[in-house]
């Protein structure tokens, strides 16, 4: 049996830092959606655990420490939780840039947990899968859910949200990997923990909510990688772009467009003017 799953990119439409914990982690409040397309993970039964990496960003991922690969760590954690020695050959087609603020590694790990839970017949429930994922990375429970949500705490408090209209999105990364710990280190804290946007209320995501939001990590990320500012400016001036903002800790930025036509025109322009940038048109469907 060969199973496969798309690991959709996670986009932080807003991100507010609400506190710092004694363990050094920060509490967040973030409106999160998952876009169409992304990495592809497949799994087939095998005697041992193994991971093959392909795709346009495979070489970047292969430079990382294999022991820290979230797909294999998720697989081993699931083996332990399910008390099984079953193996699998995993193939990851890496289509998303690494260390880019769109949860690629976390989405891959979430896909591994779901696929292997099915492949191995473990029948582990959603809550336990989320607990296994949270021990590996704060974004994994959200990626397991995979629908619009409000994420609070360190990623452990999730509230489903209503999205009443499709979002037409361009993701743009200037091929710049950024360290999340370095971005948080550059965050102006505690003198200026929150730049003033109010806490989110309700269960419906509206244009007004999105336009009033910000990303508290955007400015410290720009300080580390000024090219992010250039990407945002290029997006903001495109006809039909209603919001341009950075996702997560960067360096991927997104543009929200009014309609598919204006999005397509922006994609053509960005690809022609900046051929080295990663430009990915996508959408989020209403719930």
Write the layout of secondary structure elements.
Layout: E1 2-7, E2 10-20, E3 26-34, E4 39-46, E5 49-54, H1 58-62, H2 70-82, E6 87-93, H3 104-119, H4 126-136, H5 140-145, E7 149-153, E8 157-160, E9 162-163, E10 167-173, H6 180-186, E11 204-205, H7 207-212, H8 218-224, H9 227-236, E12 241-246, E13 253-257, H10 260-273, E14 278-284
Parallel strand pairs: 5-6, 9-11
Antiparallel strand pairs: 1-4, 2-3, 3-7, 4-6, 7-8, 10-13, 10-14, 12-13
Would you kindly provide a written description of the structure presented here, covering whatever features stand out?
This protein has 287 residues and is α+β, with helices and mostly antiparallel strands. The protein folds into two domains: 2-159, Ribosomal Protein S5, domain 2; 162-284, GHMP kinase, C-terminal domain (Alpha-Beta Plaits, 2-Layer Sandwich). Helix content is 33%, strand content 30%. The protein contains ten helices and 14 strands. It has helices spanning 58-62, 70-82, 104-119, 126-136, 140-145, 180-186, 207-212, 218-224, 227-236, 260-273, and strands at 2-7, 10-20, 26-34, 39-46, 49-54, 87-93, 149-153, 157-160, 162-163, 167-173, 204-205, 241-246, 253-257, 278-284. A four-stranded mixed beta sheet has the order 1-4-6-5. A hairpin with a 5-residue loop joins β2 (10-20) and β3 (26-34). α2 runs parallel beside α3 (104-119) and α2 crosses α4 (126-136). The chain starts with a strand and ends with a strand. 44% of the residues are buried. The model has no long low-confidence stretch (mean pLDDT 92).
């Amino acid at each position: 049996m060969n199973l496969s799953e798309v690991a959709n990119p996670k986009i932080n439409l807003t991100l507010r830092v609400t506190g710092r914990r004694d363990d050094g982690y920060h509490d967040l409040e973030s409106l999160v959606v998952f876009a169409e397309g992304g990495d592809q993970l497949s799994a087939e039964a095998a005697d041992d655990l193994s991971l093959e990496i392909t795709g346009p960003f495979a070489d970047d991922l292969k430079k990382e420490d294999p022991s820290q690969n979230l797909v294999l760590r998720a697989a081993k954690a699931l083996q332990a939780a399910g008390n099984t020695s079953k193996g699998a050959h995993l193939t990851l087609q890496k289509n998303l840039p690494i260390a880019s603020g769109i949860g690629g590694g976390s989405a891959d790990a979430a896909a591994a947990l779901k696929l292997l839970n099915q492949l191995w017949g473990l029948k582990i429930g959603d809550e336990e899968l989320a607990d296994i994922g949270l021990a590996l990375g704060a974004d994994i429970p959200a990626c397991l859910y995979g629908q619009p949500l409000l994420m609070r705490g360190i990623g452990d408090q999730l509230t489903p949200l209503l999205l009443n209209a499709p979002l037409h999105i361009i993701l743009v990364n200037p091929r710049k990997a950024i360290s999340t710990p370095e971005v948080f280190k550059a965050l102006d804290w505690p003198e200026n923990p929150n730049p003033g946007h109010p806490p989110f209320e309700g269960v419906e995501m509206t244009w007004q909510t999105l336009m009033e939001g910000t990303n508290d990590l955007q400015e410290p990320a720009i300080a580390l990688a000024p090219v992010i500012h250039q990407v945002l400016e290029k997006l903001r001036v495109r006809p039909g772009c209603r919001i341009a903002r950075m996702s997560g800790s960067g360096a991927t930025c997104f543009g929200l467009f009014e309609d598919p036509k204006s999005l397509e025109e922006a994609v053509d322009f960005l690809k022609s003017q900046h051929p080295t940038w990663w430009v990915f048109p996508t959408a989020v469907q209403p719930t």
